[in-house]
Write a structure and sequence with these properties.
Organism (chain B): Paenibacillus amylolyticus
Structural class of chain A: mainly alpha
Largest sheet of chain B: none
Largest interface: A-B, 45 and 51 residues
Number of helices of chain A: 16
Order of helices and strands of chain B: HHHHHHHHHHHH
Number of domains of chain B: 1
Oligomer: heterodimer
Strand content of chain B: under 5%
Distance between the termini of chain B: 61 Å
Membrane topology (chain B): Multi-pass membrane protein
Radius of gyration of chain A: 22 Å
Transmembrane segments (chain B): 6-26, 38-58, 70-92, 99-121, 155-174, 204-226, 238-264, 285-303
CATH architecture of chain B: Orthogonal Bundle
Subcellular location (chain B): Cell membrane
Shape of chain A: globular
Keywords (chain B): Cell membrane, Membrane, Transmembrane, Transmembrane helix
């Protein structure tokens, strides 16, 4: 019991919670300024998500890729890398999964779907590993190389869909074969025919694996050591460069898997895109809200998914522009990043607690 | 392909490059002072938005097309400076992670501008169409073959302004005491502090100039190419501006070259069907070429980073 209490009073718990509350309040103030009723708007937001089974299932579907791109960003961050390329890795993973899903028709379902998932993860990982390799071997800043790789990934995805997978007369690929689908029909029927899929379960498993790998294995220790202080890690005999490439590869695998989920579980085909979907960038926000911890990422994705999916209901029921939610999310990250501000606001409470502790 | 087409491609290249030039110059001011600026995209969005509504209301108030366009630019500068203070307060005063603070700007920009547009224009996702800057011809010079077509015909004032700012930035950065101090703050803040340079103040100024310039870049898009502000007016140009800055090694002239290079890659799309040889190449390959080339150049030529030494580090006088 005491442990639980201690956990709740920890900074890593209090600061995000206060940041979230402050973000919601700030959003409410902006709504008031715009002449809307924030209570009504937030009410409509939560009714949208939790009001009926269909919308709840769709909200869960919305959260799933965010978990993956969030985990991807968090993983690289632990190694001291800023993987802004989740977007490209997501797209490349998506395309690899579509390719396998379409071209390898005829495989039994217990082979086809896993193969498509593995392809998505593998190519997403390789895409990120390019940025990792360039950083390790040539000192190229991973931020810029992965921004470039995002664009290349977008056009590469379109190229592959248009050249090899195109449905005649349409701007999209042919459907993946049934055997590659990871949709869960029974769960979907249970949840008002929403497009829930197995990916959500895999995402949860990935968060647990992330935790175990990062904090319970020697390899995870090395990655964290490189992230804390590459020089010290090098001095201790670790291969910094190898760890950079490895961390980027695993990070990209997570993002790529997220892309694969979207094709295999939700849409069952891939469109030729005029711009990138933004899931990779949203994953950065999710990871930041979750303080780069896998379980924090889960909570971050729930928060992000609830807010964005629910914002549609907000605009429908209370006529509030849904864009307000971006302001809320932006301010939440702002307050989490600038912890100084939150501490400054919480100062009265902190000093009181300190006094008690001293005695 | 004839000279006329080449001239037109150069012309279009410069139009597309204009916004990138402004934004990457903005990035240089911030990063030379030691503050990473991933918020360029957001500043551009704010600028594009301010230009859209500023020009609209100026037009409503009865100002002429060009005057109202300048009013739009002015509002963009004001808003750019204001929102840059968010980045500055978080990353300089409160020592937040500068990359994250920049991303926050992008989030806030995407949300608040669309929110305001819908609020101001009864739920519409676009700002009303404004006249913006009109193209003009430079007398006499426009008749020079090729060069006239490329640089002096159908040009926007913003393009000339951007090129002027390249040299101005170069001059300020490398020939004035202000530039020297700004750079010293980004290279070695504690040494600068020791000789009496106000580190935090210079960083604030760097970020504010950055916000203003990037916002002008965004304004240039609204007031020349689109004529209206919507959610996809800027769409990633801020990130390309960051690439241009790094590609140009944080040097204004280099960033200008890189911006023109990216502008060319955007312009070429409009002309791609004109080339015989390009018919057989899928358009996606041509689209991805500039980004591919950037990576190749980074690997081959840059290698050694030329970023300011103290970039991304909050300044803590206690650590001196």
């Amino acid at each position: 019991m005491n442990n639980v209490l201690k956990w709740f009073t920890r900074d890593s718990f209090i600061l995000p919670v206060v940041a979230i509350i402050m973000g919601l309040i700030l959003g409410g103030v902006v709504m008031l300024i715009g002449g809307y009723n924030p209570v009504e708007a937030y009410g409509a937001l939560f009714t949208k998500v939790f009001g009926d089974m269909y919308n709840f299932g769709e909200a869960v579907r919305e959260m799933t890729p965010l978990i993956m791109t969030g985990l991807a960003f968090a993983f690289a961050s632990r190694a001291g890398l800023f993987n802004i390329g989740g977007e490209g890795q997501f797209l490349v993973g998506m395309t690899a999964a579509t390719f396998v899903g379409v071209k390898f028709a005829g495989l039994p379902i217990y082979l086809h779907a896993p193969l498509a998932l593995i392809a998505g993860a593998l190519f997403g990982g390789l895409w990120a590993a390019i940025a990792g390799y360039l950083k390790a071997a040539r000192g190229v800043n991973e931020v810029i190389s992965s921004i470039m790789l995002n664009w290349i990934g977008l056009y590469l995805a379109n190229l592959i869909v248009r050249q090899f997978l195109l449905l005649k007369g349409e701007n999209r690929s042919v459907d993946i074969s049934e055997s590659a689908s990871i949709s869960l029909t029974w769960l979907s029927e249970l949840m008002g025919n929403s497009r829930v899929h197995m990916g959500t379960l895999i995402a949860l498993v990935m968060a647990v694996l992330f935790y175990i790998y990062m904090w319970k294995t020697k390899q995870g220790y090395e990655i964290r050591a490189v992230g804390y202080n590459p020089n010290a890690a090098e001095y201790a005999g670790m291969h910094v460069n190898r760890n950079i490439v490895k961390a980027m590869f695993i990070s990209g695998m997570l993002a790529g898997l997220g892309g694969a989920f979207q094709v295999l579980g939700v849409f069952h085909y891939q469109t030729v895109m005029s711009g990138s979907p933004g899931t990779g960038f949203d994953g950065i926000a999710v990871a930041l809200i979750g303080l780069n911890h896998p379980f924090g990422v889960l909570l971050g994705a729930v928060l992000f998914g609830t807010l964005t999916y629910g914002s549609a209901g907000m605009s429908f029921a209370a006529d509030v522009p849904p864009e307000i939610i971006r302001i809320v999310i932006g301010s939440i990250i702002f307050f989490i990043a600038a912890q100084g501000i939150v501490r400054w606001i919480l100062k009265p409470f902190y000093s009181k607690r300190k006094k008690e502790k001293v005695l | 392909m004839d000279l006329l087409t080449i001239g037109q491609i150069i012309n279009t290249t410069l139009v597309f490059a204009t916004a990138l030039i402004f934004a990457s110059l903005g990035g240089i001011f911030s990063e030379k002072s030691g503050v990473t600026n991933l918020g360029l995209e957001g500043f551009m969005v704010f600028g594009a938005f301010a230009a859209g509504i500023g020009a609209h209301y100026a037009q409503e108030a009865g100002m002429g097309g060009t005057t109202s366009a300048w009013m739009g630019v002015l509002l963009a500068i004001v808003l750019g400076v204001l929102v840059s203070l968010i980045h500055a307060v978080a990353s300089i005063t409160f020592k937040a992670d500068q990359i994250i603070s920049g991303i926050v700007i992008n989030f806030l920009a995407a949300g608040s501008t669309l929110y305001l547009v819908k609020l101001l224009f009864e739920g519409s996702g676009d700002s009303p169409l404004v006249q913006g800057f009109s193209k003009f011809d430079v007398p006499f010079l426009k008749d020079i073959p090729l060069l006239g077509e490329a640089f002096f015909k159908n040009v926007y004032p913003t393009t000339y302004l951007a090129i002027l700012f390249v040299f101005l930035t170069y001059y300020i950065m490398f020939k004035t005491p202000f530039g020297l101090r700004l750079r010293s703050v980004g290279e070695h803040p504690s040494a600068a502090d020791t000789v009496g340079v106000k580190v935090l103040r210079y960083r604030y100024i760097g970020v504010m100039i950055s916000g203003a310039l990037a916002a002008i870049g965004g304004a240039a898009i609204t007031l020349t190419t689109t004529g209206t502000f919507s959610h996809n007016t800027v769409s990633g140009q801020g990130y390309i501006a960051i690439a241009a800055m790094i590609f140009g090694k944080w040097n204004p002239i280099g960033a200008f070259g890189a911006a023109v290079f990216f502008g060319f890659s955007q312009a070429i799309r409009n002309y791609v069907q004109l080339f015989e040889w390009s018919q057989s190449i899928p358009q996606e390959i041509i689209f991805m070429l500039p980004y591919l080339l950037t990576i190749i150049v980074l690997v081959a030529a840059v290698g050694r980073s030329s970023a300011p030494s103290a970039l991304g580090e909050a300044y803590d006088p206690g650590k001196r």
